[in-house]
Specification:
The protein is mostly helical. It is built from 21 helices and no strands. The two termini are 39 Å apart. 47% of the residues are buried.
Length: 469
């Protein structure tokens, strides 16, 4: 009775258009008041603990802030120039370069819609000018943008870690190889289509241009090495690495690239200026830029936008943790786990159910909300069936990728529709072949667990831990 009431009320509230965070909180509180012996005081305490008791959650606002600075600055433009110089000369290379740019930007942003918005706004128009069909370019970018939640650092992986108490560092390690594989799979598919449709190739710009564009993009790409190097090397936790990333992104956008902030438009070396004079001038600029950034309108807008997104996401997480508290106190996951295990389902059969359930949920809810609702239920069942929690996390993340491409609430579809000015139906049709490719990748990830688990296990061995620890 309690289980039925909780879920019927939750989905009824969502169906009538109530925000997901309020739906989660209201359904949880109503269930507690009607069926539980918990007091209202315990509800307030649990809501507070949901934020203060999860150190990993601190990484989310930091990664969102770093993504906001890099999205506002010219990082995307420089990454695209480098990607085009690197592989634009291959047939279909401009589309392949777009995927590479998405992979690089995903590794510095952690957000799928941000990746589509930053890269797609530039490259879709460029592909059309170069002779690519607009539908082809839009489909590629909409799909490649989903790498933002698979290639670490990933906000979705942090949410899964908070919901299940799984190590965020291990989730990041596990997502690295699948993310690279998905990007390469897209590039191979693009190359095959390009050969069949005789899509154009750019002339090779030369090694000098490759080095120059690589040098210009290095400021943004260094964030990848700083964050992932610190986490994989055991130097910093994901939360500490996220804090460093936010500071670095601010410095590279405001002082390094100077795309926003008080130094906007000021060159590193003026015409006719000596190197020594330029060095002294730029050193004097640094404290000035730091002080003036406090009141700079562009910098403040970036911080405010990041704060709004962080507050919205953390409010959802707080209410979802309250929902998970109700599930736990009423032993709902335990009852569901016993029922499913009682069916005698093998692990592979359970994973089919997991994928179908998550794909269906992806049509109607935002990824973080799905994870916070479903992970506490699916996690104990997976553990009983011997499925590795890290592997389950990667399966759920890939399902969330596909959810970004499925109507009616696929966020990437909305972003691409806004960029191209086309209808949602047009974008869905353009993305469909690539979504099918992603479904094939999901099957591969689901039933070949070592794709996800090899790197975490290998790094564990290097650190001297026993396998599986």
């Amino acid at each position: 009775m309690t289980i039925a009431f909780l879920f019927i009320l939750l989905f009824a509230l969502i169906f009538f258009g109530m925000p997901i965070a309020i739906s989660l909180g209201l359904a949880s509180i109503t269930t507690i008041l009607l069926f539980s012996h918990d007091s209202l005081g315990s509800i307030a305490l649990k809501f507070f603990e949901s934020q203060s008791g999860h150190y990993t959650l601190l990484a989310i606002p930091f990664f969102i802030l770093s993504s906001a600075f890099l999205s506002t600055g010219g990082v995307a433009r420089r990454l695209i120039d480098f990607a085009i110089a690197a592989i634009g000369h291959v047939r279909g290379g401009l589309a392949m370069a777009s995927v590479l740019a998405c992979m690089l930007f995903a590794a510095v942003s952690g957000s799928s819609p941000a990746t589509v918005a930053a890269i797609g706004a530039i490259v879709i128009t460029g592909m059309v000018r170069a002779g690519y069909p607009m539908a082809f370019g839009a489909g590629v970018i909409t799909t490649a943008g989903t790498l933002g939640i698979l290639i670490p650092p990933s906000i979705v992986m942090l949410v899964y870690s908070a919901a299940t108490e799984v190590s965020a560092a291990k989730m990041f390690e596990a997502g690295f190889i699948p993310g690279i594989m998905m990007g390469l799979l897209l590039m191979v598919a693009i190359y095959i289509v390009a050969r069949v449709k005789k899509l154009p190739a750019q002339p090779f710009p030369g090694f000098r241009t490759l080095l120059v564009t690589g040098g210009r993009a290095l400021g943004g790409m260094m964030l990848i090495f700083i964050v992932l190097g610190a986490i994989y090397g055991g130097v910093a936790s994901p939360t500490e690495a996220a804090a460093v990333a936010a500071v670095y992104a601010f410095l590279i956008a405001v002082y390094g690239y100077r795309d926003i902030g008080p130094l906007k438009g000021k060159p590193w070396v003026s015409e006719g200026e000596s190197i020594g004079s330029a060095v002294v001038r730029n050193l004097l600029y640094f404290p000035r830029a730091m002080v003036m950034s406090v009141g700079d309108q562009e910098v403040r807008k970036v911080i405010m936008d990041a704060a709004k997104v962080s507050i919205m996401l953390l409010f959802i997480i707080g209410n979802a943790m309250l929902f998970a508290h109700v599930l736990t106190t009423e032993r709902i996951p335990h009852h569901i786990a016993e029922t499913i295990v009682g069916w005698g389902l093998p692990a592979w059969g359970f994973l089919i159910i997991v994928n179908l359930l998550l794909l269906a949920a992806g049509n109607f809810m935002e990824p973080s909300a799905i994870l916070l609702i479903m992970a506490p239920i699916l996690f104990p069942i997976a553990v009983k069936l011997g499925i590795d929690p890290i592997h389950l996390g990667i399966i759920m993340t890939v399902n969330m990728e596909i959810g970004m491409l499925t109507p009616p609430v696929g966020l990437n579809l909305f972003v691409t529709a806004g960029i191209t000015g086309k209808s949602m139906g047009w974008v869905i049709k353009a993305s469909l072949p690539w979504t099918l490719l992603l479904l094939g990748f999901l099957i591969l990830i689901t039933y070949v667990p070592q794709i996800s688990l090899w790197l975490p296990e290998y790094l564990n061995e290097l650190r001297g831990f026993a396998p599986g620890s």
